[in-house]
């Protein structure tokens, strides 16, 4: 990983102080909201993030089982992006990228601290600046409510009510309120929702606000609110097309410990580990998907309450609402659960952006948007200068209907190994048609998929003569992107991949 010269580093606090003079000169900083014309009004921001929500886990993205009418309201009044991705499908690294506009290798949050090599991983380094810090320096009233997940403390917020390092339970969660631990009563999503409404009521009326509104759902262990505990009982969840895939040419999957048949979460629901493999696999799928959807019902309900509150306060027109997730999730694809791996179910996320004052409703099916793009976009929309160090790109012009050149590919990276689930380190490049995955520790392996003709990613074309030119071009492009983004390997040969867990995905025999 490329390191800065320590002599040139400044602390986050010093950097924000230096930038405060710059952002204070932004057009809105000295003008009161009341004096601004409607077209030039300073926008508020509500940034809604869920945890582990795959893109199609919303009715507006085509889900025929789960109905999310309130979240769909955001899409109906804004832009729905179908090609939205994360650059590292893991909670803490992705959240740090949303905040900083930087890739994982740059901001330094490489894992969830899920393995011995990562137990002492710090949170964001002091020199990394987040978009809430810059908004606060520009005069915004800032708040964060819900899941934080980083080992560094929340900074740049006037109000902070977060689950903290414990990440909080689904019932009666303990949270840190401006650094003080407080025990709340009720379901976590309802607590987060109530605190968001409190933030709106108690915010200073003379300042624009930025609220990070972060739900725990639908993260494991998928414990729904009592009112939704029996939803979908009469539904038979369809089996994914790749549920029985034999994983030929997928070493990263074969060695990961993510088999849905082996998850222990539903033993209290009658899924006994002594059952035959296929029976466990199918029962776990039914329980997993139903509970995953159930916890999202409380998210949708609480999002609706916040939208109603914005309407009642007359704030909806000048409020930017973003709805997204930190990563996707496997719900039985390749017989798996969890995320981490560079397949579509894992890296694709929902992305809805509503800003009635300036953004016309529509669906964007062509532009690839990344988690690192969020910070520069929100800064540009609010008139705050975007730091040159940010690696993401503002998609504000796209929201405003402008035609601008846009990326044709992006770099993906995953580092947390050996650790929970034993997903090997890998990186890759995705274009609109192709995906190349590189397991770069020894034994080195490659995967190549034609997404146009094989959207389920079942046939690994790496090494086939017919696709040699395509593979070579993608390898070159991946290295070019790494150079552009400052991702540099240490000198010497690639290290040998360390052992992890049992080393096999139980139930899958040798490749056919």
Chain-wise SSE layout:
Layout (H helix, E strand, L loop, with lengths): L11 H12 L20 E7 L18 H8 L2 E3 L2 E2 L5 H10 L3 H4 L23 H7 L3 E6 L12 E4 L11 E4 L2 E4 L4 H15 L6 E6 L36 H5 L21 H36 L6 E7 L4 E2 L5 E2 L5 H4 L3 E4 L7 E3 L4 E2 L3 H9 L13 H4 L9 E6 L11 E6 L2 E6 L5 E6 L17 H17 L28
Parallel strand pairs: 1-8, 1-9, 2-13, 3-14, 4-5, 4-8
Antiparallel strand pairs: 2-12, 5-6, 6-7, 9-12, 10-11, 15-16, 16-17, 17-18
Helix pairs in contact: 1-5, 2-8, 6-8
Report what the structure shows:
It is a single chain. This protein has 512 residues and is an alpha/beta fold. The protein has a single domain, classed as Alkaline Phosphatase, subunit A (3-Layer(aba) Sandwich). The protein has twelve helices and 18 strands. The chain has a ten-stranded mixed β-sheet with strand order 7-6-5-4-8-1-9-12-2-13, sandwiched between helices. It has a four-stranded antiparallel β-sheet with strand order 15-16-17-18, covered by helices on one side. α1 crosses α5, α2 (69-76) crosses α8 and α6 (188-202) runs parallel beside α8. The radius of gyration is 22 Å and the shape is globular. The protein starts with 11 loop residues before the first helix and ends in a 28-residue tail after the last helix. Residues 1-10, 27-40 and 508-512 have low confidence and may be disordered.
């Amino acid at each position: 990983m490329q390191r800065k010269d320590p002599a040139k580093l400044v602390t986050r606090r010093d950097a924000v102080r230096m930038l405060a003079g710059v952002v204070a000169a932004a057009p809105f900083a000295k003008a009161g909201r009341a004096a601004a014309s409607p077209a030039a009004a300073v926008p508020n921001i509500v940034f809604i993030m869920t945890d582990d929500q795959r893109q199609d886990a919303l009715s507006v993205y085509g889900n025929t089982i789960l109905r999310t009418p309130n979240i769909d309201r955001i899409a109906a009044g804004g832009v729905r992006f179908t090609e939205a991705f994360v650059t590292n499908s893991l909670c803490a690294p992705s959240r740090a990228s949303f905040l900083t506009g930087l890739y994982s290798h740059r901001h330094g949050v490489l894992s969830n601290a899920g393995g011995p090599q990562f137990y002492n991983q710090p949170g964001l380094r002091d020199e990394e600046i987040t978009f809430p810090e810059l908004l606060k320096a520009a005069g915004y009233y800032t708040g964060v409510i819900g899941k934080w997940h980083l080992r560094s403390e929340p900074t740049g917020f006037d109000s902070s009510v977060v689950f903290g390092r414990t990440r909080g339970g689904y019932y009666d969660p303990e949270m840190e309120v401006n650094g003080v631990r407080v025990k709340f009563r009720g379901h976590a999503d309802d607590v987060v929702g109530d605190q968001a409404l409190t933030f709106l009521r108690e915010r200073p009326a003379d300042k624009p606000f930025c609220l990070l509104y972060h739900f725990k759902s639908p993260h494991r262990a998928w414990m729904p609110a009592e009112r939704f505990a029996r939803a979908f009982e009469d539904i038979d969840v369809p089996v994914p097309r790749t549920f029985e895939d034999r994983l030929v040419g997928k070493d990263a999957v074969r060695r990961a410990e993510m088999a849905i048949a082996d998850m222990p979460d539903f033993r209290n629901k009658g899924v006994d580990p002594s059952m035959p493999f296929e029976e466990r696999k199918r029962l776990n799928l039914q329980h997993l998907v139903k509970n995953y959807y159930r916890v999202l019902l409380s998210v949708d309900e609480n999002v609706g309450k916040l939208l109603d509150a914005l309407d009642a306060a007359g704030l909806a027109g000048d409020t930017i609402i973003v709805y997204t997730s930190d990563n996707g999730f496997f719900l039985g694809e390749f017989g798996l659960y969890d995320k981490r791996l560079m397949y579509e179910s894992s890296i694709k996320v929902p992305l809805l952006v509503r800003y009635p004052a300036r953004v016309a409703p529509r669906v964007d099916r062509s532009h690839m948007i990344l988690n690192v793009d969020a910070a520069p976009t929100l800064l540009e929309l609010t008139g705050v200068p975007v730091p040159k160090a940010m690696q993401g790109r503002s998609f504000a012009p796209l929201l405003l209907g402008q035609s601008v050149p846009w990326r044709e590919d992006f770099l993906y990276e995953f580092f947390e190994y050996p650790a929970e689930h034993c997903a090997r380190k890998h990186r890759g490049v995705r274009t609109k048609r192709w995906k190349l995955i590189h397991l770069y520790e020894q034994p080195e392996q490659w995967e190549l998929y034609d997404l146009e003709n094989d959207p389920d990613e079942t046939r690994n074309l790496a090494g086939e003569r017919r696709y040699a030119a395509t593979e070579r071009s993608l390898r070159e492009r991946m290295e070019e992107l790494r150079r552009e983004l400052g991702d540099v390997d240490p000198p010497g040969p690639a290290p040998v991949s360390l052992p992890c867990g049992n080393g096999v995905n139980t139930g899958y025999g040798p490749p056919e």
